[in-house]
Protein backbone atom coordinates (compact mmCIF):
# COMPACT_ATOMS: atom_id res chain seq x y z
CA UNK A 1 0.00 0.00 0.00
CA UNK A 2 2.78 2.45 0.85
CA UNK A 3 4.37 1.80 -2.58
CA UNK A 4 1.18 2.91 -4.31
CA UNK A 5 0.98 6.05 -2.17
CA UNK A 6 4.61 6.88 -2.97
CA UNK A 7 3.94 6.47 -6.69
CA UNK A 8 0.86 8.66 -6.55
CA UNK A 9 2.68 11.38 -4.59
CA UNK A 10 5.37 11.58 -7.26
CA UNK A 11 9.12 11.86 -6.94
CA UNK A 12 9.03 15.01 -4.86
CA UNK A 13 11.00 17.00 -7.42
CA UNK A 14 9.45 20.34 -8.30
CA UNK A 15 10.09 21.96 -11.65
CA UNK A 16 12.36 24.99 -11.69
CA UNK A 17 10.64 28.35 -11.70
CA UNK A 18 10.69 30.00 -15.13
CA UNK A 19 12.66 33.20 -15.55
CA UNK A 20 10.88 36.51 -15.96
CA UNK A 21 12.19 36.62 -19.55
CA UNK A 22 10.59 33.23 -20.23
CA UNK A 23 7.27 34.37 -18.76
CA UNK A 24 7.32 37.60 -20.79
CA UNK A 25 8.17 35.61 -23.94
CA UNK A 26 5.07 33.47 -23.35
CA UNK A 27 2.92 36.52 -22.69
CA UNK A 28 4.07 38.44 -25.74
CA UNK A 29 4.26 35.47 -28.10
CA UNK A 30 0.91 33.98 -27.17
CA UNK A 31 -0.83 37.33 -27.18
CA UNK A 32 0.73 38.45 -30.44
CA UNK A 33 0.23 35.10 -32.19
CA UNK A 34 -3.45 34.67 -31.35
CA UNK A 35 -4.01 38.42 -31.70
CA UNK A 36 -2.74 38.41 -35.29
CA UNK A 37 -4.76 35.31 -36.19
CA UNK A 38 -7.88 36.85 -34.62
CA UNK A 39 -7.30 40.20 -36.36
CA UNK A 40 -6.97 38.51 -39.76
CA UNK A 41 -10.10 36.51 -39.02
CA UNK A 42 -12.05 39.66 -38.21
CA UNK A 43 -10.62 41.92 -40.94
CA UNK A 44 -10.84 39.51 -43.84
CA UNK A 45 -13.72 37.33 -42.63
CA UNK A 46 -11.51 34.26 -42.97
CA UNK A 47 -12.06 31.69 -40.21
CA UNK A 48 -8.60 31.03 -38.80
CA UNK A 49 -9.23 30.46 -35.11
CA UNK A 50 -9.66 27.07 -33.52
CA UNK A 51 -9.30 26.28 -29.83
CA UNK A 52 -6.23 23.99 -30.02
CA UNK A 53 -4.17 26.96 -31.29
CA UNK A 54 -4.12 28.38 -27.76
CA UNK A 55 -2.37 25.24 -26.56
CA UNK A 56 -0.05 25.41 -29.58
CA UNK A 57 0.92 28.92 -28.46
CA UNK A 58 1.79 27.59 -25.03
CA UNK A 59 4.28 25.20 -26.60
CA UNK A 60 5.62 27.67 -29.17
CA UNK A 61 6.24 30.42 -26.64
CA UNK A 62 6.29 28.68 -23.27
CA UNK A 63 8.35 25.63 -24.23
CA UNK A 64 9.99 26.57 -27.55
CA UNK A 65 12.86 24.09 -27.18
CA UNK A 66 10.53 21.10 -26.85
CA UNK A 67 10.30 18.77 -29.84
CA UNK A 68 6.51 19.30 -29.79
CA UNK A 69 7.08 23.04 -30.40
CA UNK A 70 9.15 22.79 -33.56
CA UNK A 71 7.67 24.13 -36.83
CA UNK A 72 7.19 20.79 -38.57
CA UNK A 73 5.39 19.38 -35.55
CA UNK A 74 3.07 22.37 -35.19
CA UNK A 75 2.09 22.61 -38.86
CA UNK A 76 2.06 18.95 -39.86
CA UNK A 77 0.68 17.69 -36.55
CA UNK A 78 -2.37 19.93 -36.99
CA UNK A 79 -2.72 19.09 -40.69
CA UNK A 80 -2.52 15.34 -40.13
CA UNK A 81 -4.91 15.31 -37.19
CA UNK A 82 -7.42 17.56 -38.94
CA UNK A 83 -7.24 15.29 -41.98
CA UNK A 84 -8.12 12.32 -39.77
CA UNK A 85 -11.10 14.25 -38.42
CA UNK A 86 -12.28 15.10 -41.92
CA UNK A 87 -11.95 11.50 -43.10
CA UNK A 88 -14.06 10.33 -40.17
CA UNK A 89 -16.58 13.13 -40.68
CA UNK A 90 -16.98 12.40 -44.40
CA UNK A 91 -16.71 8.61 -44.56
CA UNK A 92 -17.16 6.99 -41.16
CA UNK A 93 -19.46 9.20 -39.13
CA UNK A 94 -19.52 10.96 -35.81
CA UNK A 95 -20.21 9.29 -32.50
CA UNK A 96 -18.45 8.42 -29.27
CA UNK A 97 -16.63 5.41 -30.67
CA UNK A 98 -15.69 7.19 -33.91
CA UNK A 99 -14.39 10.17 -31.94
CA UNK A 100 -12.24 7.94 -29.74
CA UNK A 101 -10.88 6.00 -32.69
CA UNK A 102 -10.18 9.20 -34.66
CA UNK A 103 -8.18 10.72 -31.81
CA UNK A 104 -6.29 7.44 -31.34
CA UNK A 105 -5.46 7.25 -35.06
CA UNK A 106 -4.36 10.90 -35.08
CA UNK A 107 -2.01 10.27 -32.17
CA UNK A 108 -0.62 7.11 -33.77
CA UNK A 109 -0.06 8.86 -37.11
CA UNK A 110 1.65 11.83 -35.48
CA UNK A 111 3.95 9.48 -33.60
CA UNK A 112 4.66 7.37 -36.69
CA UNK A 113 5.44 10.40 -38.88
CA UNK A 114 7.44 12.15 -36.11
CA UNK A 115 5.24 15.26 -36.11
CA UNK A 116 3.81 14.91 -32.60
CA UNK A 117 2.09 18.05 -31.39
CA UNK A 118 -0.18 17.40 -28.38
CA UNK A 119 -2.65 20.25 -29.07
CA UNK A 120 -3.33 18.68 -32.48
CA UNK A 121 -4.72 15.63 -30.72
CA UNK A 122 -7.90 17.69 -30.25
CA UNK A 123 -8.29 18.49 -33.95
CA UNK A 124 -10.33 15.40 -34.90
CA UNK A 125 -12.81 16.38 -32.19
CA UNK A 126 -12.93 19.99 -33.39
CA UNK A 127 -13.68 18.79 -36.92
CA UNK A 128 -16.22 16.16 -35.92
CA UNK A 129 -18.08 18.43 -33.48
CA UNK A 130 -18.19 21.31 -35.98
CA UNK A 131 -19.54 19.05 -38.73
CA UNK A 132 -20.37 20.23 -42.25
CA UNK A 133 -16.75 21.16 -42.94
CA UNK A 134 -15.11 20.83 -46.35
CA UNK A 135 -11.63 19.72 -47.30
CA UNK A 136 -10.68 23.41 -47.51
CA UNK A 137 -10.58 23.33 -43.68
CA UNK A 138 -7.06 21.94 -44.09
CA UNK A 139 -5.97 25.18 -45.77
CA UNK A 140 -8.14 27.60 -43.82
CA UNK A 141 -7.89 27.57 -40.84
CA UNK A 142 -5.36 24.78 -40.25
CA UNK A 143 -2.46 25.53 -42.60
CA UNK A 144 -2.88 29.31 -42.62
CA UNK A 145 -3.15 29.71 -38.85
CA UNK A 146 -0.29 27.34 -37.99
CA UNK A 147 2.03 29.03 -40.49
CA UNK A 148 1.15 32.44 -39.01
CA UNK A 149 1.91 31.18 -35.50
CA UNK A 150 5.25 29.70 -36.64
CA UNK A 151 6.16 33.02 -38.30
CA UNK A 152 5.36 34.90 -35.09
CA UNK A 153 7.44 32.35 -33.15
CA UNK A 154 10.35 32.96 -35.52
CA UNK A 155 10.25 36.63 -34.56
CA UNK A 156 9.51 36.40 -30.85
CA UNK A 157 11.67 33.38 -30.05
CA UNK A 158 14.74 34.87 -31.72
CA UNK A 159 14.80 38.21 -29.88
CA UNK A 160 18.18 38.46 -28.18
CA UNK A 161 21.58 37.35 -29.40
CA UNK A 162 21.57 34.24 -27.20
CA UNK A 163 18.22 32.98 -28.58
CA UNK A 164 17.88 30.53 -31.47
CA UNK A 165 14.63 28.99 -32.64
CA UNK A 166 13.72 26.56 -34.10
CA UNK A 167 15.95 23.75 -32.96
CA UNK A 168 15.28 21.98 -36.26
CA UNK A 169 13.03 22.18 -39.32
CA UNK A 170 13.01 18.59 -40.55
UniProtKB/TrEMBL annotation:
It comes from the Bacteria. Keywords: Membrane, Transmembrane, Transmembrane helix. InterPro entries: HPP (IPR007065), TM_HPP (IPR058581). Coiled coil: none annotated. Pfam families: TM_HPP (PF04982). The keyword Transmembrane helix applies. The chain crosses the membrane at residues 20-40, 83-113, 133-156. Residues 17-166 form the HPP transmembrane region domain. This is HPP transmembrane region domain-containing protein. It comes from Paraburkholderia solisilvae.
